[in-house]
Amino acid sequence: MKAPSFAPRLLFFFFLAAISLSAAPALAQTGAEAIVGVWKTQDGDAHIQVFKGSNGKYYGKIAWLEIPNTESGSPRLDINNPDEAKRKNPLMGTMILSNFDYSASAKEYNNGFVYDSKSGSTYSGYLKLQADGTLFMKGYIMGMRWMGRSNVWTRVK
């Protein structure tokens, strides 16, 4: 009597393992982690690196600028910042999203702040991933979500 071959079972096991490993990156981009990455702003003049902080909240900083330097060649500065001490900081690296929590029930990131470096204003804000893969971002004032400005960002590949 011939002993049973384990080769088909072993191949099946490796096949399942390969499928599981290839699906891991897709699974990592579901839920709260789906926002992590680099996003192009609606105007296309900046890329924002969104990341999860050590406190579990989400942040975004300027990672690329279409025009990173002034005519003289020096880095563009955060000249509109209401804090005079920060007006000499380069725009590159400026934190524009801060303290966003993920709400699984609402499937959005809320309770955060959006800094508009063009005006120097900071707004309450929320972020929401859209079905088409874009990121809807809205800044608003006085707790009134309907009163504010919105942008739609696209993921940088």
Main beta sheet: strand number and arrangement?
A: 8 strands, antiparallel, barrel
What are the secondary-structure elements, in order, as H or E?
A: HEEEEEEEE
Structural class: mainly beta
Radius of gyration, CA atoms, in whole angstroms:
22 Å
What low-confidence regions span 5 or more consecutive residues with pLDDT below 50?
A: 6-28
- How would you sum up the global shape? globular
Mean pLDDT: 85
Strand percentage lies at 35-45%
Number of strands: 8
Terminal Cα span: 57 Å
Strands in their spatial order, largest beta sheet: 1-2-3-4-5-6-7-8
Count, helices: 1
Helix content: 10-25%
Secondary-structure map:
Layout: H1 7-28, E1 37-40, E2 46-52, E3 58-65, E4 95-103, E5 108-116, E6 121-129, E7 135-141, E8 144-155
Antiparallel strand pairs: 1-2, 1-8, 2-3, 3-4, 4-5, 5-6, 6-7, 7-8
Give a short summary of the structure:
This protein has 157 residues and is mainly beta. It has one helix at 7-28; strands at 37-40, 46-52, 58-65, 95-103, 108-116, 121-129, 135-141, 144-155. Helix content is 14%, strand content 41%.
